[in-house]
C-alpha cells in the first residue's frame, strides 16, 4: 500500500479508502438484531480485507443507513491507533440536532472518537452560510473537537466548483471530500485551492460516479488498454500529488482487487497516461466531431438561469459519454436522477424541452442553434424511469 500525508491533519492516509455506503444491509437505521448474519459477515470480511491490504481509512456517514451500527460490531476490535475513521453528518439549521446526530453516530460506531468528521453535503451557498454562522454546525463540531470526540473537521460536497472554492477559502476545514476523476475534471481548481490551504483531498466514488467502471462497455475497455478502466481512472487521479486518497465503495472483499493493480504501475503514470488520454480524445472527436468535442461546454448556463431549470451542461456531458464511449447505462442512471437529486444533483432533465425558449440563456454558446434539438434527442436516448439517490432507496 502507498500512503500520503492527508494535508494539515498530518495523518498518513492510504491512497485507497474503504467507503462505507455499499456493504450495509439497509439505507435505514436498524437494530443489529434485524441484520442478517450473512450480510454482517460480509461487511466484517470486507473491513478485514481492507486492513490486510494496508487500507487504514474507513469512511461512513450518518446518512448511510445501517452502515454505522454494523461497523460498530467490528471497529472496536481493531487497533484504534492504526485506523482512521471518518463519519459525516449533514448540516442542520438546528445545530443541536447536528450534535444529536453525531452522538448517535459515535454510539453506533462504539468508539470514543472519530478521526475525521465531515459536514455532509455543503452543496449550496445557503448550506455553507448555515454551517459556518455563529452557533451553527461548525461551532458544534469545534466543541466536539475540544471534547476529544473529533480530531479533524472537513466537509463533503457535490456543489458547483465556485461554491467548493468559497468553502475552502473560509479556511475553517482540514479536508474536503469531492468529485474529480477522468470523465469529470471540473473541480480541479477546487483541488488546487485545497492544496494551497494544505487540506486533505478525498475523492468521492471514482469508480461509480466516475463512470460505473466496474461494468465498462467494450469501447471503454478498448480505449483504456493496456489498463482496465478502473486502473486507468485510479492512475489518472493518483498521478496528481494533490490528491491523497480515493474511495473504494466495496460491497464485498474482492472489490479491492482490481484497484490494487494501480499500485503496480503508479511509477509509470507519465509514460502510460498520455497514450490513453490521447485515445479518449480521438474517440470523442471521431464520434462527436472535433468542433463539438472541443467546444460543447462553452457558454452554457447554470440550471438556475435556464428555463425549466434544465441542467444543460450535465445533459450534454452525459450524451457525449453515451455516444463516444457507449457509456449508455451510466448516462441513463445519472440522467434519470435529474429532478430527483435535490441539491446533491441539481437541475431538471430535458423531457419538456420543446416547450421552452432557450434562446436567451444560450446566447454565449457557439452551438445555441442546435442545442435544443440535441437536448430533445438526448431525452429520447436516455430518458426513462426516474432514479432516486441511493440514500432515498
CATH architecture of the largest domain: Alpha-Beta Barrel
CATH class of the largest domain: Alpha Beta
SSE pattern? EEEHEHEHEHHEHEHEHHEHHHHHH
**Assigned CATH superfamily of the largest domain:** NADP-dependent oxidoreductase domain
GO molecular function, one term: oxidoreductase activity
Organism: Merismopedia glauca CCAP 1448/3
Domain NADP-dependent oxidoreductase: 39-166
Protein name: Aldo/keto reductase
Give an overview in words:
- GO terms for molecular function: oxidoreductase activity.
- InterPro entries: AKR (IPR020471), AKR2_Oxidoreductase (IPR053135), NAD(P)_OxRdtase_dom_sf (IPR036812), NADP_OxRdtase_dom (IPR023210).
- This is Aldo/keto reductase.
- It holds the Pfam family Aldo_ket_red.
- α9 crosses α10, α11 crosses α13 and α13 crosses α15.
- The chain is built from 15 helices and ten strands.
- The chain is globular.
- The protein is 40% helix and 11% strand.
- The strands form two sheets. It has an eight-stranded parallel beta barrel, surrounded by four helices. A two-stranded antiparallel sheet has the order 1-2.
- The two termini are 34 Å apart.
- The chain folds into two domains: 265 residues, TIM Barrel, CATH 3.20.20; 104 residues, no CATH class.
Short summary:
The protein has helices at 37-52, 67-71, 95-109, 125-132, 137-146, 161-168, 188-196, 218-224, 229-238, 257-265, 269-288, 290-295, 312-325, 328-335, 371-382, and strands at residues 3-5, 12-14, 16-19, 57-59, 84-89, 114-120, 150-156, 175-178, 200-203, 245-248. By secondary structure, the chain is of the alpha/beta class.
Amino acid at each position: 500500500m502507498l500512503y500520503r500525508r492527508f494535508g494539515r491533519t498530518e495523518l498518513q492516509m492510504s491512497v485507497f479508502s474503504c467507503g462505507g455506503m455499499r456493504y450495509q444491509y439497509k439505507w435505514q437505521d436498524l437494530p443489529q438484531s434485524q441484520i442478517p448474519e450473512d450480510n454482517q459477515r460480509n461487511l466484517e470480511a470486507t473491513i478485514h480485507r481492507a486492513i490486510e491490504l494496508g487500507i487504514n481509512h474507513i469512511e461512513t456517514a450518518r446518512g448511510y443507513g445501517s452502515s454505522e451500527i454494523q461497523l460498530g460490531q467490528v471497529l472496536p476490535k481493531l487497533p484504534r491507533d492504526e485506523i482512521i475513521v471518518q463519519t459525516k453528518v449533514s448540516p442542520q439549521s438546528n445545530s443541536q440536532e447536528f450534535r444529536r446526530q453525531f452522538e448517535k453516530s459515535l454510539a453506533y460506531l462504539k468508539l470514543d472518537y472519530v478521526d475525521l468528521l465531515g459536514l455532509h453535503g455543503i452543496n449550496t451557498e445557503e448550506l455553507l452560510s448555515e454551517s459556518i454562522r455563529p452557533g451553527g454546525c461548525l461551532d458544534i463540531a469545534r466543541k466536539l473537537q475540544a471534547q476529544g470526540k473529533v480530531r479533524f473537521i472537513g466537509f463533503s460536497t457535490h456543489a458547483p466548483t465556485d461554491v467548493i472554492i468559497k468553502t475552502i477559502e473560509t479556511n475553517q476545514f482540514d479536508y474536503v471530500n469531492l468529485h474529480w476523476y477522468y470523465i469529470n475534471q471540473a473541480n480541479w481548481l477546487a483541488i488546487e485551492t485545497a492544496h494551497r490551504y494544505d487540506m486533505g483531498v478525498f475523492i468521492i466514488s471514482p469508480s461509480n460516479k466516475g463512470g460505473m467502471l466496474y461494468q465498462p462497455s467494450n469501447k471503454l475497455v478498448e480505449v483504456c488498454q493496456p489498463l482496465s478502466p478502473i486502473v486507468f481512472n485510479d492512475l489518472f487521479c493518483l498521478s496528481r500529488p494533490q490528491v491523497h486518497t480515493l474511495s473504494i465503495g466495496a460491497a464485498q472483499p474482492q472489490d479491492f482487487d482490481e484497484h490494487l493493480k494501480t499500485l503496480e504501475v503508479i511509477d509509470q503514470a507519465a509514460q502510460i497516461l498520455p497514450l490513453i488520454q490521447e485515445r479518449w480524445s480521438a474517440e470523442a472527436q471521431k464520434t462527436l466531431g472535433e468542433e463539438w468535442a472541443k467546444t460543447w461546454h462553452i457558454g452554457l448556463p447554470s440550471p438556475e438561469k435556464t428555463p425549466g431549470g434544465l441542467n444543460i451542461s450535465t445533459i450534454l456531458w452525459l450524451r457525449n459519454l453515451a455516444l463516444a464511449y457507449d457509456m449508455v447505462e451510466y448516462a441513463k442512471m445519472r440522467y434519470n436522477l435529474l429532478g430527483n437529486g435535490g441539491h446533491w444533483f441539481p437541475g431538471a432533465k430535458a423531457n419538456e424541452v420543446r416547450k421552452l425558449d432557450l434562446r436567451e440563456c444560450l446566447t454565449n454558446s457557439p452551438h445555441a442553434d442546435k442545442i435544443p434539438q440535441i437536448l430533445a434527442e438526448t431525452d429520447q436516448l436516455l430518458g426513462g424511469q426516474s432514479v432516486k439517490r441511493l440514500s432515498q432507496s
